[in-house]
Amino acid sequence: MVGLWSMIQEIDQSRTTWAIKARATRVYREPAHDGFPPSLEIIFHDEEASRIHGHIPDQFIGKFINLFREGRIYVVKNFMVEKIFMFFKTTTSAYRLRFFKKSEAFEIQIPFPSRTFNLVTFVGLQAAETIDDKVAVDIIGQVIHHKDPKTILKNDRPKKLIELILGDTEGNVIGCTLWGPMVEMLLTYKLTTAEPIVMLLQCCRAKKYQGQVHVSNMFNITKVILNGVEDEFNDFRSRMADRCGEGLSFMISSDTSNEGDISTG
Predict the structure, then answer these.
(1) What Pfam family is a match for this entry (predicted)?
(2) What is the pLDDT of residue 40?
(3) Rounded to an integer, what distance in angstroms lies between the CA atom of residue 99 and that of residue 102?
(4) Could you give the CA distance from residue 256 to residue 126 in angstroms, rounded to a whole number?
(5) Residue 140 located in a structural domain
(6) Both 126 and 247 in a single domain?
(7) What is the domain-level CATH number for residue 102?
(8) What are the φ/ψ torsions at residue 229 (nearest 5 degrees)?
(9) What pLDDT band is residue 3 in, cutting at 50, 70 and 90?
(10) Closest Cα partner for 57 from 32, 78, 22?
(11) 0.85 cut: is pTM over it?
């Protein structure tokens, strides 16, 4: 502990009087589902870049809904620490913070490192023997190919999807599927720009099957950013420009066939 503040890695279930300084990297609403009431969910990181998930139950949403904003820094005090039992984990921590009636939080403005995204590389995913598809990852790549959108039945409900190929700055590619509203978001954005589309998926799901890596958005949890202004985008574009100067290029295409042509070289 440094002064009155604890680091996220120090937190355990021994008490409810912890106090942390942390940046909110993701804030989203979880609607009622499968007998669970709605909630407000937040992912925090501290000065050491350690991450932990925060859960605000339905009865306390009104107290915090107008407070938490992505990218801002907060003092968070007096929370319960509970073992993670979420089906899909947003961090690798064994715990999450559960807000209750005595919980407090307020925004502060201090110099603080920004680790909003915890990016994994295409190579890292492809080299892994196995991937835990129950733990969220952040990934960035250029959209180099997409098929036409389609609608399928999933859990007896129609779901819209679009299949993409993403490329990194080293010429590696992985498959990507966007579901739900993300489909129209991408297609609408594509109509507004002639620039290559660089996509960052925050808190997406990665799977590996027969040696092939595939990522997809998770409803409510995943945030998709297209051609953003964040440092990660600037770094990606800079590295892509350098590699293009060395002869790396992608053929960007879309089609209605079952197979897409991808050219690197």
Answers:
(1) DUF223
(2) 98
(3) 8
(4) 27
(5) yes
(6) yes
(7) 2.40.50.140
(8) -105, 0
(9) low
(10) 32
(11) yes
For the chain, give the number of residues.
265
CA 55/CA 97 separation, integer angstroms: 6
Q: How far apart are CA 251 and CA 1, in angstroms?
A: 52
**CA proximity to 70, closest of 120, 114, 100:** 114
Distance CA(198)–CA(131), nearest Å, equals 24
Q: Which helix (H) or strand (E) holds 55?
A: strand 51-57
Q: What distance in Å separates the CA atoms of residue 130 and residue 99, rounded to the nearest whole number? A: 34
Residue with tokens 């040696």: 211
Is the residue at 59 inside a domain?
Answer: yes
- Look at residues 50, 76, 108 and tell me which one is the last residue of a structural domain: 108
Q: Which domain holds residue 103?
A: 8-108
Q: Is 170 found in the same domain as 91?
A: no
Question: Which value, to the nearest 10 degrees, does the dihedral of the CA atoms of residues 19, 21, 25, 29 take?
Answer: 30
Residue 234 CA to chain centroid, in angstroms? 18
Domain membership of residue 190 (yes or no) is: yes
Neighbours of 106 (CB within 10 A): 9
> Using one digit for the tens of pLDDT, what is the confidence trace for 219-262?
899 999 999 999 999 999 999 988 775 544 454 444 533 333 22
| Residues 213/175, Cβ–Cβ less than 8 Å | yes
Short-list 203, 68, 209, 219, CA closest to 139: 203
What is the domain count for the chain?
2
User: How open is the CA angle 203-167-179, to the nearest 5 degrees?
Assistant: 45
Phi then psi dihedrals of residue 126, to 5 deg: -70, -30
Separation between Cα atoms, residue 226 and residue 146, nearest integer Å? 15
